[in-house]
Structure formats: structure tokens, C-alpha cells
Amino acid sequence: xxxxxxxxxxxxxxxxxxxxxxxxxxxxxxxxxxxxxxxxxxxxxxxxxxxxxxxxxxxxxxxxxxxxxxxxxxxxxxxxxxxxxxxxxxxxxxxxxxxxxxxxxxxxxxx
Length: 111
Ligand code: AMP
What we know:
Blueprint: H1 3-8, E1 16-19, E2 23-27, E3 35-41, H2 56-72, E4 79-82, E5 98-102
Antiparallel strand pairs: 1-2, 2-3, 3-5, 4-5
The site of adenosine monophosphate (AMP) has 12 residues, from loops.
């Protein structure tokens, strides 16, 4: 079981900023920006490489949640959403997630 599933199950604590039937959003334990939120589906999908047409609704939902959380946390100057997929992207938790980063100017391209 991944650490994110344990957070969904409330087996380990997290600083949760949003929750609904399909998704959960919480503060990243190792923030890379003043605001760094991880948004996950409650359905276990390992990575973007595993998604199918059946996941369209939940994937779209994660971006709508990102917008709502960005507004709630007053990221009025902009923000970035990131989905790391696989080893080259540095994915470490095999439960698909959207990073929401903001609160400072972010460099581009990413490292
Ligand atoms: P990724 O490298 O894209 O797989 O992102 C995984 C993210 O999950 C990293 O930014 C970690 O800091 C974060 N993370 C890992 N464990 C926890 C946890 N227990 N609570 C909050 N964030 C976590």
C-alpha cells in the first residue's frame, strides 16, 4: 500500500486542505515552494502511464480541485500544476498525484 493510500485511510496524518468523494488534497511534507499541495484521487491509479478512458472524469476533477485549492489558498499571482510520471520525472509515490505549487516565481524549464 502506498503512503498516499494510508493518508486516505487516515492511518497516517496529513495537513488536509480539501476533500470530496473523489479526491483529497494535502500539504506536501517536503515543500518546494511556499505553497505546495498534493492532490490525489481516492481511486488508486499508479501513474499517468496507467490511465485509461475510464479515468477521464477523475483526472479532470483533479484539475478543477487544483483551481479551487489555488483560490482557497490565495495564489492570486499564479501557480503551477505538475504530474511526475516514472523514473525520469522523479516520481516517488506510485499513486497518481498533481502537485500544486505557488507563492513564488517558478523557474522554467524545470530541472
Ligand atoms: P513525486 O516525487 O512526484 O512522486 O511526489 C511525491 C511527493 O509526495 C513528494 O513531493 C513528497 O514530498 C510528498 N510526500 C511523500 N510523503 C508524504 C507525506 N506523508 N505527506 C505529504 N507529502 C508527502
